Amino acid sequence: MGKAMADLRDWLGEISDLRRAAALLQWDKQTMMPRRGADSRTEQLATLERITHERFISARTGELIEAAEAERAAGPPDSIDARIVSEARRLYDKSRQVPADLAAARTTAASDGYRIWVQARETDDFATFAPALERNFRLTREYVSCFDGQEHPYDVVLDDFAPGMRTGEVTRLLGEMRDALVPLIEQLAPRPVDRSPLHVRFAVEDQRRLVDRVLHWMGFSDAGWRLDDTVHPFEQSFSVHDVRLTTRYVESYFPTALYAAMHECGHGLYEAGIAPELQRTPLGTIRSSAIHESQSRLWENMVGRSRAFCAALAPVLAEHARGALDGLAPEALFRAVNTVQPSTIRIEADETTYGLHIVARFELELALLGGALDVSDLPEAWNAKMAEYLGVEVASHDEGVMQDVHWSEALVGYFPAYAIGNLIAGQLWARIRRDIPELEDQLARADLWPLREWLREQVHRHGSRYGDRELLGRVVGEPVRVGPFIAYLREKLAEVYQLDLA
Amino acid sequence: MGKAMADLRDWLGEISDLRRAAALLQWDKQTMMPRRGADSRTEQLATLERITHERFISARTGELIEAAEAERAAGPPDSIDARIVSEARRLYDKSRQVPADLAAARTTAASDGYRIWVQARETDDFATFAPALERNFRLTREYVSCFDGQEHPYDVVLDDFAPGMRTGEVTRLLGEMRDALVPLIEQLAPRPVDRSPLHVRFAVEDQRRLVDRVLHWMGFSDAGWRLDDTVHPFEQSFSVHDVRLTTRYVESYFPTALYAAMHECGHGLYEAGIAPELQRTPLGTIRSSAIHESQSRLWENMVGRSRAFCAALAPVLAEHARGALDGLAPEALFRAVNTVQPSTIRIEADETTYGLHIVARFELELALLGGALDVSDLPEAWNAKMAEYLGVEVASHDEGVMQDVHWSEALVGYFPAYAIGNLIAGQLWARIRRDIPELEDQLARADLWPLREWLREQVHRHGSRYGDRELLGRVVGEPVRVGPFIAYLREKLAEVYQLDLA
Q1: B218-265 per-position pLDDT tens digit
Q2: Domain of B369: which CATH number?
Q3: Which of A153, A205, A451, B287 has the most CB within a 10 Å radius?
Q4: Total domain count for chain B?
Q5: How far is A17 from chain B (nearest CA, A)?
Q6: Among A96, A117, A144, which residue terminates a domain?
Q7: CB distance from B37 to chain A under 8 Å?
Q8: Among B28, B32, B279, whose Cβ lies nearest the Cβ of A40?
Q9: A271 domain-assigned
Q10: What ipTM did this prediction achieve?
Q11: Could you tell me if B168 and B479 are in contact, meaning their C-beta atoms sit under 8 angstroms apart?
């Protein structure tokens, strides 16, 4: 390795360490921190993120990148080092547009907003939450205005979570998905399916044992992973050997904990699967939330709710449910967990209606960011979208506009990643079924190793080495498409509802 | 507030935030982190600590202090701001004496030394540990040589943990304490006391409830505190509203968990009691380990093992012990937890013999640092001290010279803080008994609020505003003295052994 490359790696390694430290402060805040520690934690995070940002956007970073670019000019363009330099260049050029004060203000607003959101939810009080939300969108507009030459202001925030994607493309993809989903839901939602197996009493301690079992099937190990409880499940990692998941337990509805855990473990497998030699480089984290969500949704739905996996799951559910699920038929479980049932809560939504929750949020974000919608009018607009796309009535802010953490933390532009992730998962799944002909037998035996290794080889190990388009090109030979996901869904729903949906 | 003062406060506030962040990484490493996360955590901590140190010793810190000194020259010398400036000056001048290379070498040696110590303990192998120990003392000598004009080389390290104390004073105090303790122990150790109530089977889950109850009496609240499990109990805080304790449970000996928790909670009350307006300044942490230990030892021993508090504790022990301690007499508990019983392990020593463990370590440290003792001769010297002061025979290095973590991590100069802390606690306790005549009644009712408020008012709220000598002068009107601690101990032991010890 040349001197310039070594210096750049050292410098970026320190920045990676600082980011990991900030991530731990975030994780702790949501899992371990006593409530009253919040104010000081907000200050600590703001300082850490400001200093990290200042270092990253400093002239020194630019000089080191330039020197490494010069040193590498003659080398192979696709080597790890070349990719480190080009990814550092991309992130540096983007970050430099944002003044440190604005970056710090966004961090503080995110932390405050989260706290206010938690409090406001206790009394279902949108009026208390609204000023924080207004500030978050105002700061997002300021952030967007730091960048020139965008086709659409939303392109800037979208690029933070799905680098290289454009608002126009997302609008087209989500529109196509919406147009396929709406008639499907209209056709299937009225048909009754027996969901009673999901509503048995299942003690939280028994659910913990169940979740532990399923996560270990997936690759969770106590030596390098943790699972904790939070109201809003999430995943975070501090190295490929330190991956942390959370889930949430509802005694009267076990799928909440089980599928949230599988979802977060899908994220965790991605981060645990990054090639260790990429750690402390810009390639050692995951560039795209869309790909990230493709992994979580794939494990949660395509594996977790598959007919084959239900054969492995049903007896284990019965084993842990103290009699309440004795004799549970895999087919009954498969039908129950795939019912099309429009509802108000995104994270509880079934696989089919889920996408419309995202479409609604995406459209509302666009309107809020562009100024076409005021925060004060948001609840009404929210409820109207829910009625229009899902035919449901929202009874409270808690199950309406205040259900998601994202906007409270100024995460604007994230939501499309979930839907795009579903679409990508559909493309990957089609490819996986061709590459692993024995997949169904393996899932039915809870033998998840071949699938995990396929994902590691094709996707995980690369970290941020490739952009979404390049990665998809390598793995499935095409850009994001709606078709495979809808085809997958139709095939599954035809089995669930015993109808011809082709 | 003037501009220079505001700038200095901002700058030091950031440094405080970075230190708190590093402390969280340390806490997590010992409580939550999956085992395989260790290597990355070491890198993250090293980066965070290096960057924090660089910022603090930078020319900018010096300029800001100088400007604030000039601005404050005309103001009152005892204001909070004046104290912030003078404490920043003290710490800055001290830190700047140490070349960055030496600071880094000490950090590395501490980390290596700890690892080697852990390994060497597994096979009770002093020969493997000795080179690390030699290096730690050599680097400590180099560190000492960075400072001019000391009466004694040990003054430099002592000042790190008990700022302002001198080796001569500690030698005199510990000598006087030793001379009082040795005959007391010789007289009492042979007398039998029934300790059987301490050795009942006490399920860990029941102990958790017991500890939770007692900690809440002390002021622990779920909103601002946590209690977790570790092999080596410790306390750490990230703000006055985020205080974390750990303890360790032994099913066959409940005092381990209970008294470790009370000890750590004593530390925690100190940190929680610092005036909130001192946070993010150099006064917002605790300057002196000696005063810190005075608080933990006061709660653990003077409260926790008092005759009065045993009246509150005995029925609660019985309540949680599922029959094993039914009818436990407070007097029997009081006698059992105050037995004088020489042993080889410091952290398990009773209140009376504890001090001699410290005297031995202090004398050995002095000899090692001064070169009068070689590391190779240390085990023999250690065992001789144990025989001389405590009359015990050391059967292995594990229960001898390799029992403590301190020297492995190059923490030379810390040990006296424990004994000086006991002496200070003795002085505070005498004062408290005069100031709160109803103290015994309150302890017997587990009404710990008046005591806690006294300590907060007199000691805790000041944070690092005063040096030890100044603080003691304000609170007890005298410097550290041995007499009150010995008098307290004699009075208690006379009750325990029903003898006239006056």
Answers
A1: 999 999 999 999 988 999 999 999 999 999 999 999 999 999 999 999
A2: 1.10.1370.30
A3: B287
A4: 1
A5: 5
A6: A96
A7: yes
A8: B279
A9: yes
A10: 0.93
A11: no
